[in-house]
Backbone:
C-alpha cells in the first residue's frame, strides 16, 4: 500500500487534530472535576 506525500501529510494533520481535541477533552474534564 503506497500513500502519496500529500495523503501522508493529511493523515498526520488529522492525527494531530484528534490528539489535540482529546487532550482538550481531558483537561476540561479535569477542570470540571476540580470544581
Residues:
Amino acid at each position: 500500500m503506497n500513500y502519496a506525500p500529500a495523503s501522508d501529510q493529511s493523515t498526520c494533520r488529522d492525527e494531530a487534530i484528534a490528539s489535540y481535541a482529546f487532550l482538550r477533552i481531558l483537561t476540561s474534564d479535569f477542570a470540571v472535576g476540580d470544581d
Summary: The mean pLDDT is 74. The two ends are 49 Å apart (CA to CA).
